[in-house]
Write a structure and sequence with these properties.
Blueprint (H helix, E strand, L loop, with lengths): L4 H13 L7 H7 L5 H5 L13 E2 L1 H13 L12 H7 L14 E2 L14 H13 L5 H9 L13 E3 L12 E3 L2 H4 L9 H16 L6 H14 L17 H14 L3 H12 L5 H4 L15 H10 L4 H16 L3 H6 L48 H14 L8 E4 L2 E4 L1 H14 L3 H11 L2 H9 L11 H14 L4 H8 L21 H12 L7 H9 L22 H11 L1 E3 L13 H17 L15 H13 L5 H8 L8 E2 L6 E2 H12 L11 E3 L9 H7 L19 H28 L9
Antiparallel strand pairs: 1-2, 3-4, 5-6, 7-10, 8-9
Helix pairs in contact: 1-4, 1-15, 4-5, 4-6, 6-9, 9-10, 9-11, 11-12, 11-15, 12-15, 17-18, 17-29, 18-19, 18-21, 18-29, 19-21, 21-22, 21-23, 23-24, 23-25, 25-26, 25-27, 27-28, 27-29, 28-29
Amino acid sequence: MLPDHGLMIDTLYAMHASGDGDLATPITSYLDEGGHASDYFTWDGLVPGMGFDAIIVGGATAKVLLAAEVAGRDPRDFDGYDMVAETKGTIMRAGPDKGRVSDYSKDPAFADFVSNNANMFGQSLAVIALAAVGQSDQMAIDTLLTQQCAEGYFRIFFGYIPTTETGDHVTSNGYKVSSCEEGKPFDQSAPDGDATGMALSALVAARRSGVTGLDAPIARTVAWLKQRQSAGGGWGGGVNTEAPNTNSTGLIVQALADAGGADTAVERGMAYIKSAQATAAADSGNALAEELGAIAYNPEQYQAAKTDGIVGRDTWIRASAQASLALSQVGFYDLARGNLPVDPTPGSEPTATPRSPAPSPTQSANPTPTTTATRAAPSPTATVDGAAAAQRLGAYLAGKLVGGDHIEVRQDGKTYVDYDATADLVLALHTLGIQPQAATRAARFLLREQSVKAYAHGAPYETGEAAYAEPLAKLIVIAGFTRTAAGDLHNSLAALSTPDGEFVDTGQTPDTDRSVERHAWTILATLAGPEPDRATRSIEALINQQCADGTFPASLASTGCSTGDLAATAAAVTALNAQPRAATGTAVPDRWSPRRAKALADAATALANRVNGNGVVTGAGGRTDVAVSAATAAGRQAAGLDASDTARALAALVRKDGGLAKPGGTTSDLATSIAAAAGVAGRAWTSVTGAPVSRAVRLPVLTGVAAVNQATTSPAPTVARPVSASGGWPRWLIAGLVALSVLLAVVLALGLRRFLHRNQKAKAVAR
């Protein structure tokens, strides 16, 4: 049985909407790290390696983009693809399908294989997904609106009609794509509840992203849906699904709740769905006792299952995925943006006191060593729920925020705000993809004028002008996540730069250790700024310090080192492979120097070589060094290597309260827990959606990394490259196999084409 990627993604949407996004992690990992998203939105999965990745399925492409956003992954680097660019590429810019999200082939040789079966589900999801990343496409929105009939509903299929018009919008045989009104005389414009619900979600998303002129079509859509609600509170879909059902009702209720102005209809729709849901109160003693929470396609099916149990489980799964969206009442736009009610509203803001100048301005007032953990890493066969562990860790970190937005410490009987710990905690939450509201609140606290003065300029303890590079760099990165203007921060950081590419603090208490980690932060912040090319000198200064074995020393002051520090090396890898928020490539960028490419490859190789079979680094007594293991995982993943082995190992160390203990400790420690976040997540923050810089290239593209990566316990994501036809096979045999593969590909392609025609009315969200 082939994987049902569309249903997987529907389930992913539902899990995140309900606040249980951690349960969707296996789906996300399968699609992204596993490299299977492209099996869905291209034809490559049919006959791999034959070039069919050039055939793009429009609706599936948009659906994958939205999945990446909902899952908190980088939509410009999902399964190695820039899904924003891929989705925009499906929108035809000329010809009969102008403005339509379309199935097409990038390779003209395969053009005849493709029939454009893209429909309004894909059109709507493309509008939603592009709006959520600030890339609303007016042409796609305008085309969406042509498919609304005067009554307010939307049809599901685009239809061609004969025309005497001329122009590039007319096909060679005299047809054009009709509007909904134009299609009525040709019986092409039947109302479709599902398409109407999805289109309403799309229009609301576009409006919320700043697109104007949509109030009237939204109002017409809402009015039509309210009029079409059944006496029982449900809605039907389109042809063959006209009767009320929970599947259609879920999509429509979600859209109406997002649009507003239909509270009564929303309440009745939710009641209809709940009347088809197995609950503990109603079903604990019958055949549905082990299926609590499941939603039937309609109330009649639910009543029958009380006695007979679930018959046709696939129908229940599909109904549950889409119906649950109504119960969560989180619109697609909020879902994609991560605006979920995942934690309680904090209380009133406590009085924040700038911390004492006793510690270094860039360090916590109570630094805690993070060298080893109290338990050994689990065996490779241990079963660990990594998603649940990440969820618990995120909740633990968010729960440590005083007043919901900052960390405090006690020193000499006084309470101080620990700005550095707060900044690290914000980045930890972003890395985990957990507790987005908590991360946003803490970021706003840090970016307040008084916080910036205290953290980055030493107020009130500095008596003159002062500025600290690492705090400024971290604030710039945090501002980038929140899309907050950071011009003053960038200017302050730039003022600290020296001709040799380093950054020097000013003031009475500067950081003088010249650490590589501090230097890496300044590179990342510069790349996130208005003049990213200024980072070139700093990158070269970093490369100059690389040790003989590919690692980097803890300090830039080191000379002629044979080996270095793993945490510093991980930070260096992250900086070396970073670029301004942009698409990930599969080759070394042209602007890179050969030294940078070699330095990155050598450092990534060194990191991969230093972890054991469980993906961790051990310290005294063979115990897992949580902080270094987490840093190494972040560095490996920042280079495009897989770090899921580390995630599994550290997940086993997460305690019941969500934290991790410091060495020898029996209770959770905040500093250790913050440091562990990247390891538990198995990724760097540069791979997170919304990060101000992104990974520049996925390894193993650079020489020397492929062999190392294959030796690790988990396979790393790799870029596609041709396979050599060597190894002593006869040329005639190779040629024969190639010919047979081509023939098989053609047969399958034509078969799929006929299959799509036969099944184009099958209902699924944006296939």
